[in-house]
């Protein structure tokens, strides 16, 4: 803890170096705002009954109420956010549970290769398991020291700083471990499955 009582964020804004020379990926422009991009609006959810579920190729399927989830060890990370439509937002401070930590709690089986994220609005997106366990991939419930706003995916969203942001499911309620890749909502509709911003992998 710092003197102010606020825990310092882990700085992950330099993770672009693994993928390219420029912090701002090609074809992107920086924005100070935080636009909302949702395929069909913000779904409603009941905090009393909401559960995050993990299932599929795991030793032990698990589910967490919101209170249980917020009691897990948390990380706060400063990271960048790149939308495939062309805007990037630097220095987002997300607080949540690291994907790798959560996966360990369910005991991922050896045959698990991919992860499908399921959301309350019917959205899905898939990533290889080894992309999900990278630094910065977390299931966030906090943003800039407050609760994550509902429009931005509260109560819980995934963030993927090394991928275009459509790989980060807002309102995530299910984490399914798969033995084979499957296509998610936008990937079925022509967006890139690999989604690396520094290679401009926008479309398939
Ligand atoms: N459940 C869900 N997650 C989603 C989306 C969505 O429509 N539904 N849109 C994706 C897209 S295209 C982007 S750019 C980001 C936008 O996040 P924001 O609205 O917080 O900026 O969420 C991603 N995750
Ligand atoms: Mo997007």
Describe the structure.
It holds the Pfam family Oxidored_molyb. Residues 17-32 have a biased composition (Basic and acidic residues). Residues 17-42 are annotated as: Disordered. The chain is mainly beta and 204 residues long. The protein has one domain (10-17, 50-199): Alpha-Beta Complex (Sulfite Oxidase, Chain A, domain 2). The chain contains three helices and twelve strands. Strands 1, 2, 5, 6, 9, 10 and 11 form a seven-stranded mixed β-sheet that branches. A five-stranded mixed β-sheet has the order 4-3-12-7-8. The protein is globular and about 40 Å long. The N and C termini lie far apart (45 Å). Bound molecules: ligand MTE and molybdenum atom. Ligand MTE is lined by residues 35-39, 83, 119, 121, 123, 152-153, 165-166, 168-171. The ligand Nc1nc2c(c(=O)[nH]1)N[C@H]1C(S)=C(S)[C@@H](COP(=O)(O)O)O[C@H]1N2 is lined by residues 35-39, 83, 119, 121, 123, 152-153, 165-166, 168-171.
List the defining traits of the structure above.
about 200 residues, mainly beta, Sulfite Oxidase, Chain A, domain 2, 7-stranded mixed sheet, 5-stranded mixed sheet, about 30% strand, globular, binds the ligand Nc1nc2c(c(=O)[nH]1)N[C@H]1C(S)=C(S)[C@@H](COP(=O)(O)O)O[C@H]1N2, binds molybdenum atom, Sulfite oxidase-like oxidoreductase, OxRdtase_Mopterin-bd_sf, OxRdtase_Mopterin-bd_dom
């Amino acid at each position: 803890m710092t003197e102010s009582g606020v825990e310092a964020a882990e700085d992950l804004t330099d993770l672009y170096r693994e993928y390219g020379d420029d912090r701002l990926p090609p074809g992107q422009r920086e924005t100070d705002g935080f636009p909302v991009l949702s395929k069909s609006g913000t779904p409603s959810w009941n905090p009393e009954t909401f559960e995050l579920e993990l299932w599929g190729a795991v030793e032990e399927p698990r589910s967490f109420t919101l209170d249980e989830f917020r009691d897990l060890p948390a990380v706060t990370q400063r990271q960048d956010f790149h939308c495939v439509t062309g805007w990037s937002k630097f220095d987002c401070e997300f607080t949540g549970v690291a994907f790798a930590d959560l996966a360990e709690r369910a005991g991922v089986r050896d045959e698990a290769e991919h992860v499908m994220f399921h959301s309350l609005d019917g959205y899905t997106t898939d990533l290889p398991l080894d992309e999900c366990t990278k630094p910065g991939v977390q299931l966030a419930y906090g943003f800039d020291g407050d609760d994550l706003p509902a429009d931005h995916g509260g109560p819980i969203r995934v963030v993927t700083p090394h991928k275009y942001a459509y790989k980060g499911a807002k309102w995530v309620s299910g984490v399914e471990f798969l033995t084979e890749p499957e296509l998610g909502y936008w990937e079925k509709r022509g967006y890139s499955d690999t989604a690396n911003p520094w290679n401009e992998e926008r479309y398939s």
